[in-house]
Design a protein that fits this description.
Number of strands of chain C: 2
Number of domains of chain C: 2
Oligomer: heterotrimer
Strand order of the largest sheet of chain B: 1-2
Shape of chain B: globular
Strand content of chain C: under 5%
Order of helices and strands of chain B: HHHEEHHHHHHHHHHHHHHHH
Helix content of chain B: over 70%
Number of strands of chain B: 2
Number of helices of chain C: 21
Chains: A mainly alpha (155), B mainly alpha (486), C mainly alpha (502)
Distance between the termini of chain B: 21 Å
Structural class of chain C: mainly alpha
Largest sheet of chain B: 2 strands, antiparallel
Radius of gyration of chain C: 22 Å
Strand order of the largest sheet of chain C: 1-2
Chain lengths: 155, 486, 502
């Protein structure tokens, strides 16, 4: 028993921290419950929409380029993990490492330029309408049975 | 890493630079002709760079890659294959109006993967190379042949899922092998062992079998072949050709190196597994090909059979003098297989029109009288695949026989004979179809072919005949380069 | 020298294909010229071959040619010509000319490619008859198949595709077994001498020293008897002969079958002399079975070409019998049988082809009484039917007599049964004449008799048969030293084997 408590001894700050978080959340909820206004009117039960009463249907289609987001995530977020790894061994890897990470970043940059030129970075309906050149788009037109954009006749 | 070691990676570096350049080019100025020229230039430069690289060999460039003469030979082979294949891709895509420049980019990446594979002597670079090869392939397989053409998408999904499963198996296998040997580099698995019949480390065996399954999947060996015909059929012709030639060739070169370096031939169960796979592949591949009316599927099954033959040569590797002959046999047969298969695909690409691919036997009906040269090319390709003299395939088949006879592998040799006999049947069927007197469907070449695909067809025909009649120079080259594998 | 002959034929084929695209008529003239040229080039050698006198121990080679080819395996371009090869080459070229004559008006489509295939096939055959490197031999063995496959598959009759594929698969699969045999010998040489060799001279008699000798021999044997063909492996032949165009049948029956017999004489027994005693009786039994079986089956045929095809099998049974008897008489008889059968069967196939072209049928039941309309065809048919049944005075008689006389010394019962074949031959040959040329005609056919071109071709073959029947001595003289040499080689290696076993 004593051994167990001895083992648990170093963990007490963690437990305290956990408890503190719980208390803080309870405190905030409690205070707002006590101090907050309380009234029932026409729009009170509606979902909060910046205080504006909503009109019309909620089933509006937004152009959300998930695919684009995924690609951007892969290129800029996931790859950044490699740079973290480099940062740790910054001194140890020396100039060779520096050159290598430079090459890595340059290749990422080339990919970014490619995306930018294809209009992959244009967010929202307006931008996409302007530069729909590439097969790289928010939704697969092939899947939906549409014709991909055609290339102007080269020859 | 020394400067020489870095220099020995020149082909890879050049290809990588080309790929990045191509990304930027496509971004700023989208022109299919220009992209093609850039990709060709990069490949050509990489091929030429092998000459100076040959002077600094062998080099262990990082623990992952080894540039020895074996890698040099297969790098050369890979690059030559790529150089022959790319014009065919161009022939195919220039007929389409959709935007396909990225295909060349993916092509370059796949070639890089193949180059990594042939120079790999480490499990990590094996996996890296394999994925660098497979992932672009998935996308290439999925390229729609024309707007709204969905079979390629189905093929891509199938390939993606199964390829992922195979990679997972391979990884698990590698992990188990690592558990046993404690290193990820290719090294003798059972040092000092002289083929024990008794039970061996079950973990190692499980690992080897799993890794073998993963590789067998990518090589589409029986019983891991089920994806092959569907993917071959669904993918656009250039992707199919790439899958059938470059991807498989590079992987087999790696398999041979692994088998030699890990002394896998000392591990009885592994040899048995390989024997069974070889026999099953030869028989199933050739038997199932009999039923096909679609040329792409036919070539898919025939490639299964051919990798069965290659495994026979692999099996001829042993401690005794068999090694040298077996390595030569694999190398020569790979060259023969690559050239003949490429020739077959070249004809298919040339026969395809703007709105449909030539892929059925019917498309070949009466070809001899419509396009004598294309028909001659396809005939040579078929004869070569069947292993008939005057073609390069015969010398390859001869090598397989020689390697097997030297090691007294009588059982598999008998299967080779039977499978070759069956194989004749469907190869000849294609040739007979071309000799039909009544003219076939009007699937003539839609437009005048690009000069580069003309050249490629000519080179393939010349090589098939030349190395079939006078193989001595190629044999000398192979002996000079590939025997230094250890 | 010999390689130039092969190159001439191959190049002639290319030329025919090329010119045929420009002008269809040109191809056959090219073929004629090339074959004539080759024949002219060979004829002077015949004088040297028959001239003798041969000194014992002197090599019987008239020409020998040697170049390096694939040094990795010790493979050479080793070509040699002796009396045996020379006679077979002459047969090949004469029948090549006959084949061109037979297809002069018959072939109307893609003539360039047709004559090219004809010439290429003959080039392969010439290679087979002269190659002395086993790899080279195998190479030509296969080379002659592909053009023949095209000849049957493209210009054949109604079931041509089936026949072509069957022909190819039989011969190809069996020749792969031979390749295993060849490799087995080469590796044996490598184990004994330290280097690979496919040379005939290096490998003589070595088969008996191999632990797997019997199986290697069987590989060779199957390849050769499929081609011959001998009894259980003959089923490709009736289809191929029936469906091939006339020239294809002529080349197949007249020349290609002889390559099998040639292989047995030149390669199999000298390489595996032991097989004479261990395997000889079985092979002779197969030969005898083939003689009788094929004769009986021929009797039951209603298709003229099929009938002739079965007679071929029957006649080649005599060759198998003679080869495995392996004494001077029997061997001379076997080689003579190859030559005479080459001429007589080629002539019969040309007749059948001519009839089919005129009557549009090969069914015997739809012929009859043709003699009245075409006496020349009738007479010539009677002549060759007589030759085929072995009438004295014609070459076939001499050949069969020699074979029987030779095998009589070796195996009496077999010889007696084989002699029955002479009777059955008379039955089928006479039935054929009876059905086609006598009796009532089913309808008055619009039959045109042979023209000058056809009569000339036929006359050449008739003269040949008469010559071989009346005065075969020059041929036997030119064969003598070769056959003696072969027998000596086999005997020497037999002795050494037995000595070493003792």
């Amino acid at each position: 028993m004593r051994e167990l408590s001895a083992q648990l001894q170093p963990l007490w700050p963690l437990a305290a921290y956990f408890l503190a978080v719980l208390l803080l959340v309870l405190f905030i909820l409690g205070v707002s419950h006590l101090l907050g206004e309380r009234h029932r009117e026409r729009a009170t039960g509606e979902p909060f929409e910046s205080g504006i009463v909503h009109i019309g249907d909620t089933h509006i289609r937004f152009s959300t380029p998930y695919f684009l987001m995924a690609i951007l995530f892969v290129i800029f977020d996931l790859e950044a993990a490699f740079i973290y790894a480099y940062a740790i061994s910054f001194r140890a890897s020396g100039w060779t490492g520096y050159v290598e990470i430079l090459v890595f970043i340059l290749i990422l940059l080339a990919a970014l330029v490619y995306l930018w030129r294809l209009g992959g970075l244009d967010w929202g309906p307006k931008g996409q309408a302007r530069k729909r050149l590439a097969p790289l788009q928010g939704h697969s037109r092939v899947l939906e049975g549409e014709a991909p954009p055609t290339r102007p006749n080269r020859e | 890493m020394t400067a020489d070691a870095l220099f020995s990676l020149l082909p890879l570096i050049l290809l990588a630079l080309t790929a990045v350049g191509l990304v930027l080019l496509i971004g700023f100025y989208r022109n299919l002709q220009l992209s093609f020229a850039l990709a060709m230039g990069g490949l050509l430069l990489a091929l030429v760079s092998l000459l100076p690289v040959a002077g600094v060999l062998p080099q262990q460039a990082t623990p992952l890659l080894i540039m020895d003469s074996y890698a040099l030979f297969f790098s050369g082979l890979t690059l030559v294959t790529a150089l022959l294949l790319l014009p065919l891709c161009h022939e195919h895509w220039r007929r389409q109006t959709s935007l396909n420049d990225e295909f060349y980019l993916l092509f370059l990446l796949a070639v890089m993967g193949a180059l990594v594979l042939v120079a790999s002597n480490h499990f990590v670079s094996l996996f890296l190379g394999l994925e660098l090869l497979s992932l672009p392939l998935v996308i290439m397989v999925g390229y729609p042949f024309k707007p709204g053409f969905t079979p390629s998408l189905e093929a891509a999904v199938k390939y993606l899922v199964l390829s992922g499963a195979a990679s997972a198996m391979l990884l698990f296998g590698i992990a188990l092998i690592y558990l046993h040997s404690g290193t990820l580099a290719f090294a003798p698995l059972e040092p000092g062992l002289i083929r024990l019949p008794g039970p061996q480390n079950p973990l190692l065996l499980t690992g080897l079998i799993l890794a073998l399954a993963g590789i067998a999947f990518k090589l589409s060996l029986v019983p891991f072949h089920f994806w092959t015909p569907d993917v071959y059929q669904g993918a656009p012709l250039p992707a199919t050709a790439l899958l059938a030639t470059l991807a498989k060739g590079a992987l087999f070169a790696l398999l041979l190196r692994f088998y030699l370096l890990s002394e896998g031939y000392l591990i009885g169960p592994l040899v048995w597994a390989l024997t069974l796979i070889a026999i099953a592949s030869m028989l199933a591949g050739n038997l199932l090909a009999l039923l096909q009316d679609n040329l792409k599927r036919l070539l898919a099954y025939s490639s299964i059979g051919h990798f069965g033959y290659l495994l026979v040569a692999l099996l001829a590797v042993s401690q005794s003098l068999g090694t040298a002959l077996a390595v030569e046999a694999v190398s020569y047969y790979l060259v023969a297989y690559l050239f003949s298969t490429l020739a077959a695909f070249a004809v298919l690409v040339r026969l395809s029109g703007e709105d449909r691919e030539a892929e059925t036997l019917e498309d070949c009906r009466g070809l001899f009288w419509r396009h004598p040269w294309l028909a001659t090319t396809l005939t040579l390709a078929m004869l070569s695949l069947a292993g008939i003299p005057l073609t390069i395939g015969f010398v390859g088949k001869f090598y397989i026989f020689a390697a097997a006879v030297e090691e007294s592998l009588w059982l598999v040799l008998l299967v080779v004979v039977i499978a070759s006999g069956i194989g004749l049947f469907y190869y000849l069927r294609v040739i007979l179809m071309m000799t039909h007197q009544d003219a076939g469907p009007e699937s003539d070449e839609a437009s005048a072919p690009h000069w580069s695909s003309h050249t490629v067809t000519g080179i393939l025909v010349a090589a098939t005949l030349w190395f079939g009649v006078y193989p001595a120079p190629l044999i000398t080259l192979i002996r000079h380069l590939t025997l230094a594998v250890n | 020298m010999l390689s130039w002959l092969i190159t001439l034929l191959l190049g002639g084929g290319l030329l025919a294909a090329g010119l045929g695209r420009l002008h269809p008529q040109a191809a056959r003239w090219v073929a004629l010229a090339v074959l004539g040229l080759a024949l002219l080039w060979l004829l002077p050698l015949l004088g040297r071959a028959t001239g003798g006198p041969w000194q014992p121990g002197e090599g019987a080679w008239l020409l020998l040619e040697q170049h390096a080819w694939i040094p990795r395996f010790g493979i050479q371009l080793l070509l040699g010509l002796d009396g045996l090869s020379l006679l077979l080459l002459l047969l090949t070229l004469v029948l090549g000319l006959v084949a061109v004559a037979a297809s002069w008006w018959e072939i109307e489509q893609q003539e360039g490619f047709y004559y090219a295939n004809l010439l290429w096939s003959l080039a392969g055959v010439v290679g087979v008859f002269t190659a002395l490197d086993l790899f080279l031999f195998f190479f030509f063995w296969e080379v002659m198949l592909i053009p023949m496959y095209f000849l049957i598959g493209i210009w054949g009759h109604e079931a041509r595709h089936y026949a072509a594929i069957k022909f190819f698969i039989y011969t190809q699969a069996s020749s792969l077994l031979m390749l295993v045999g060849i490799l087995g010998l080469a590796f044996l040489h490598q184990q004994e001498q330290g280097s690979y060799s496919f040379s005939y001279f290096d490998l003589l008699g070595s088969g008996d020293r191999s632990p797997h000798g019997f199986w290697l021999m069987l590989g060779f044997f199957i390849a050769f008897v499929v081609k011959l063909p001998a009894f259980p492996l003959h089923t490709w032949l009736p289809d191929a002969h029936t469906q091939a165009p006339t020239a294809g049948s002529i080349i197949l029956a007249g020349v290609l079958l002889k390559t099998g017999a040639y292989g047995l004489i030149r390669f199999l027994i000298p390489l595996f002399p032991d097989s004479l005693t261990s395997f000889g009786p079985i092979a002779m039994g197969l030969g005898v079975a083939g003689i009788l079986y094929a004769a009986v089956v021929a009797f039951a045929q209603t298709d003229l070409k099929r009938l002739i095809a079965y007679t071929s099998i029957s006649h080649m049974g005599f060759v198998l019998l003679g080869v495995y008897a392996w004494n001077s008489l029997a061997l001379q008889g076997a080689v003579l049988q190859m030559l005479t059968h080459g001429l007589s069967s080629a002539a019969l196939f040309m007749l059948a082809g001519a009839l089919q072209q005129r009557l549009h049928t090969r069914e015997l039941s739809r012929m009859g009484g043709l003699w009245r309309y075409a006496p020349r065809i009738g007479f010539i048919a009677l002549f060759f039917a007589m030759a085929s049944l072995g009438m004295p005075g014609l070459g076939n008689f001499v050949a069969e007599f020699l074979v029987l006389a030779g095998s009589f010394q070796v195996n009496l019962p077999m010889t007696l049964i084989a002699a029955l074949g002479l009777i059955t031959a008379a039955v089928y040959a006479l039935i054929m004449i009876q059905k086609a040329f006598h009796g009532p005609a089913p309808s008055a056919p619009a039959l045109v008799d042979f023209d000058r071109r056809e009569v000339t071709a036929m006359a050449v073959m008739m003269l040949g048969l008469l010559w071989m029947g009346l005065y075969p001595q020059p041929l036997i003289d030119s064969l003598g030293p070769v056959l003696d040499q072969l027998q000596r080689t086999a005997a020497v290696s037999l002795e050494t084997v037995h000595w070493s076993q003792r």
